[in-house]
Amino acid sequence: LHLVALNLPFSGDMRADFQCFQQAQLAGLTSTYRAFLSSHLQDLATVVRKTDRYHLPIVNLKGEILFSNWESIFNGDGGQFNINVPIYSFDERNVMTSPSWPQKVIWHGSTANGIRLTGNYCEAWHTANAGATGQASPLETGKLLYQKVYSCSNHFIVLCIENSFVSDPPG
Q1: Where does the Collagenase NC10/endostatin domain start and stop, copy by copy (predicted)?
Q2: Residues 6 or more apart from 61 whose CB is under 8 A from it?
Q3: Helix extents (H) in 82-170
Q4: pLDDT tens digits for 98-124?
Q5: I want to staple 11 with a disulfide (CB 3.0 to 4.6 A). Which of 68, 89, 108, 128 is the partner?
């Protein structure tokens, strides 16, 4: 399952699932992508289908392994990953080195176990109000689910996860 960043940073007011869907389509990717965010309807840990949570590795756009599987992100260690494996955007830029993302921080709105934090997810990702807060993770920590609170007015990286793996048809 590919973990890919949106092509631009976003404030806490975003239509992230739609953006993930649209940018994946524009990049010519055929699978469905969802935002790597907890929402008012769903905890982050449940965004990927149950059948795909254990046996598929989580990889970057170029197929390099970030996590052994989806469940391993939510084992309580904050989603520890190898910071030497880049995370790319849909237009193939490395979010860790590209100046398009001046702040190397990702929004997630979750606990270290991927459960939604209703007080810290920018009012279900519908506000960029400086007084509202969202849970996010500085990537230099090497953790996708590091627990840090930021104002929703910040423009951070938004990740998308492939949530329906479609294999090539036989033949």
Answers
A1: 1-166
A2: 2, 4, 88, 89, 90, 92
A3: 122-125
A4: 999 999 999 999 999 999 999 999 999
A5: 128
Could you list the beta-strand ranges (E) of 57-158: 58-59, 65-67, 105-107, 133-138, 148-151
Apex 157 CA angle, 152 and 163, nearest 5? 110
Question: Based on the structure, what is the number of domains in the chain?
Answer: 1
**pLDDT over 70 at 167, yes or no:** no
148: closest CA among 139, 96, 158? 139
3 state DSSP class of 2: strand
Put residue 54 in one of left, alpha, beta given phi > 0 → left and psi -120 to 50 → alpha. Answer: alpha
Which among 44, 35, 138, 135 has a CA at the least distance from the CA of 96? 138
- CATH number assigned to the domain comprising residue 153: 3.10.100.10
Judge contact between 29 and 92, C-beta under 8 A.
no
